[in-house]
């Protein structure tokens, strides 16, 4: 049997193929370090585009990583486009002239320097919009080095995968035809890479995160004490043991405004608020955990209060203190709040692995509460309210089928920072009224559901009645949790093409592939900005709950005072 081959210079040699492993080691090293000119142009152009602004300010280290990733994407696209062009031109690859490399060297350096400078200007403008003064000059200067290292690492990984494919195809060629070997080789390598990334790497990362955060869940934050009141889970007569509440649960029931603090704000008689919580260790599954929480809620007299708030937590079981404190101040403590934990992991990891758990927690807890609430006499029921932030809003939505269900089964709802994949959020936003922007959409004239990025500035549509149950979404224009979506890879979203929000730079534009990675990089740092920006919601809850609850005896001056209190407690 004959085998076709090539010389060490890549030229055909009769019917004999010379294995690359037989080539001199120095030549194989040059091949490994070889860069194509089209790929280099793609890498430089995409590296320059990585400096364009996204939603949040970026430090030098993060900018370097984004630059390296986008440069690697650009290199791959440049190589692909060159391959397609040669296929249409029906010619083999030709080595570029030395002049072409000189033009690339000078042009690439100039382009990179210009965009590097523009990038620093854009970052300064974003920091100014958010009132951020921190700036690390050393890391900014080192960002090109970080980018080069990241680019080289990704290029090496890509070429390693390519080398594995070539080895697999060559091995298979001994038993099956060359074309079949190429196809099967790609399938095998693609399957192996997917298995390693999704199985070994992702599973290992999730396991390590679970171990770390589950260990923290057994501890108690410094300064948090077990409640001495029967109105809190973990306190006297509670059916939920203190040790089962977890890190976030113990914070939730162990903190909050005292009756003295509530009295100073309300200037009148107040009640001690009820806080009920079920931790992961409190019961085996979410349905049992929800039933246990409702049992504790009944024991504490939660269904006898004027207001009852069902909160779906974030991934780690966290309940934003501003969310609950605002309700307790505005109601004079005449409120009970109930929540359960469904994960150890923070929300940005829970997005990947715990979405089903968030659904179960939101649905099971509300259904358990509603089952008891609906059987009470109508004149003896508390106002049933729903709330959730981030992944908590995602879980909170799952208890409802749509606008009418929210209207009919709740007295009011506040969802903050809804992830872009929220089913109802997407339904309301995608079917918004003509002419309303995506950053602040209007759904069916705002008859039930409304959106705002600044409740103090007003909630559109201002000229339409808002009767009955009020459902309010809080969403900052600069919140990457709200706007991140895989669709960013190939499709421009409306919120970028429209007029920018109050804390988004006007120079931000959509760029295929690049914008997706920029917003992705914003996600882990979405709360590392001042309150009122990114994914950090704080005093907005005061105005939001005031709109939903409509307290008759609270003035604008009272709300300003309460925002000062809530802001200090954050």
Automatic annotation (TrEMBL):
Transmembrane regions listed in the UniProt entry: 35-56, 62-89, 101-123, 135-157, 183-206
Domain Alpha/beta-hydrolase catalytic: residue ranges: 274-561
Keywords, alphabetical: Membrane, Transmembrane, Transmembrane helix
Pfam families in the record: Abhydrolase_9, Abhydrolase_9_N
Superkingdom as given in the UniProt entry: Bacteria
InterPro entries: Alpha/beta-hydrolase_catalytic, Alpha/beta-hydrolase_N_dom
Domain Alpha/beta-hydrolase N-terminal: start-end pairs: 51-257
Residues covered by region (Disordered): 1-25
Protein name: Uncharacterized membrane protein
The organism of origin for this protein: Rhodococcus rhodochrous J3
């Amino acid at each position: 049997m004959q085998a076709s081959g090539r010389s060490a210079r890549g030229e055909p040699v009769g019917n004999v193929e010379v294995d690359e492993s037989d080539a001199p080691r120095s030549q194989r090293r040059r091949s490994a370090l070889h860069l194509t000119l089209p790929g280099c142009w793609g890498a430089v152009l995409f590296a320059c585009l990585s400096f364009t602004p996204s939603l949040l300010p970026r430090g030098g280290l993060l900018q370097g990583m984004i630059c390296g990733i986008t440069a690697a994407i650009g290199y791959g696209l440049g190589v692909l486009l060159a391959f397609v062009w040669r296929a249409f031109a029906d010619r083999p690859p030709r080595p570029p002239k030395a002049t072409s490399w000189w033009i690339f060297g000078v042009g690439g350096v100039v382009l990179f320097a210009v965009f590097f400078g523009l990038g620093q200007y854009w970052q300064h403008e974003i920091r100014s919009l958010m009132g951020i003064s921190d700036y690390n000059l050393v890391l900014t200067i080192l960002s090109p080095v970080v980018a080069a290292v990241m680019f080289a690492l990704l290029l090496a990984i890509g070429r390693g995968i390519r080398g594995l494919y070539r080895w697999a195809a060559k091995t298979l060629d001994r038993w099956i035809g060359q074309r079949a070997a190429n196809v099967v080789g790609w399938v095998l390598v693609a399957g192996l890479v997917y298995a390693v990334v999704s199985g070994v790497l992702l599973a290992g990362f999730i396991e390590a995160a679970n171990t770390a955060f589950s260990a923290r869940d057994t501890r108690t934050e410094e300064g948090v004490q077990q409640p001495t009141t029967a109105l809190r889970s973990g306190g006297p007569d509670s059916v939920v043991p203190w040790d089962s509440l977890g890190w976030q649960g113990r914070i939730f029931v162990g903190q909050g405004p005292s009756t003295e603090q509530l009295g100073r704000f309300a200037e009148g008689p107040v009640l001690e608020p009820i806080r009920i919580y079920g931790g992961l260790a409190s019961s085996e599954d979410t349905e049992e955990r929800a039933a246990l929480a409702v049992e504790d809620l009944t024991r504490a007299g939660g269904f006898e209060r004027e207001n009852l708030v069902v909160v779906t937590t974030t991934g780690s079981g966290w309940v934003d203190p501003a969310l609950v404190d605002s309700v307790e101040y505005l109601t004079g403590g005449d409120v009970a709040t109930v929540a359960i934990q469904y994960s150890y992991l923070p929300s940005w990891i829970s997005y990947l692995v715990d979405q089903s758990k968030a659904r179960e927690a939101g649905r099971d807890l509300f259904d358990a509460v509603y089952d008891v609430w609906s059987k009470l006499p109508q004149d003896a029921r508390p106002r049933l309210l729903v709330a959730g932030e981030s992944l908590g809003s995602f879980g909170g939505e799952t208890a409802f089928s749509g606008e009418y269900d929210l209207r009919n089964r709740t007295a009011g709802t506040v969802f903050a920072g809804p992830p872009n994949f929220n089913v109802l959020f997407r339904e309301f936003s995608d079917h918004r009224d003509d002419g309303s922007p995506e950053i602040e959409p209007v759904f069916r004239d705002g008859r039930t559901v409304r959106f705002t990025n600044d409740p103090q500035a007003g909630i559109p549509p201002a000229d339409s009645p808002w009767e009955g149950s009020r459902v309010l979404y809080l969403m900052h224009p600069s919140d990457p949790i709200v706007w991140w979506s895989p669709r960013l890879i190939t499709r421009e979203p409306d919120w970028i093409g429209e007029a920018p929000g109050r804390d988004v730079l006007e120079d931000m534009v959509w760029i295929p592939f690049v914008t997706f990675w920029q917003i992705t990089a914003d996600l882990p740092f979405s709360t590392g900005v001042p309150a009122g920006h990114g994914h950090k919601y704080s005093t907005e809850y005061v105005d939001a709950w005031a709109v939903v609850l409509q307290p008759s005896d609270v003035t604008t001056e009272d709300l300003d005072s309460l925002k000062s209190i809530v802001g200090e407690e954050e």
